[in-house]
Design a protein that fits this description.
With about 150 residues, the chain is mainly α. It contains 6 helices and no strands. It starts with a helix and ends in a 17-residue tail after the last helix. The mean pLDDT is about 95.
Length: about 150
């Protein structure tokens, strides 16, 4: 069960990240060119937030069943000083949670804007912050202590 959820979490992250990157590019393009906020933009915004929330749910389930985080929680005072364990036990979950909250707030605030340029500006600012947090909180393969593969398979 754990390995399946980990693989699904790995797969969904790329969907969520692709939608987020696309929406950031679209937001900056629309903002800087005073473009029209279309139904397609609203649809991508909705699916981006939905994919981030799905990723959050998968991540939280994994957090509570992962042997690594279980060990981190039960041996907190010993493991908080170990970067590789602390990253998954604390840093990753906090950064991702913050990134998803920020993206959700940005999407909701852009929805309330009446002018297209303001919708795009709101998305550009909030989603860029979210994207930076996600990039900072991902366990990249080139990270020395927290290296994880880009794709996990079943």
């Amino acid at each position: 069960m754990y390995q399946i959820l980990l693989s699904v979490h790995s797969f969904v992250r790329w969907i969520a990240l692709a939608l987020l990157v696309y929406m950031v590019i679209r937001a900056f393009t629309g903002w800087l060119s005073s473009g029209k906020f279309t139904n397609s933009d609203a649809s991508v915004r909705k699916w981006m937030v939905t994919s981030l929330h799905l990723q959050l749910i998968l991540g939280l389930i994994l957090y509570f069943i992962s042997p690594l985080t279980t060990y981190f929680i039960s041996h907190f005072s010993e493991t908080v000083g170990t970067r590789s364990i602390r990253f998954f036990g604390m840093e990753h979950v906090v950064m991702m949670l913050a990134a998803i909250v920020i993206a959700t707030i940005g999407a909701a605030r852009s929805k309330r804007q009446t002018e297209d340029r303001l919708k795009f500006r709101t998305l550009a600012i909030w989603l860029t912050i979210s994207l930076v947090l996600i990039f900072a909180g991902m366990p990249w393969p080139f990270s020395s202590m927290i290296s994880r593969p880009l794709f996990r398979f079943f």
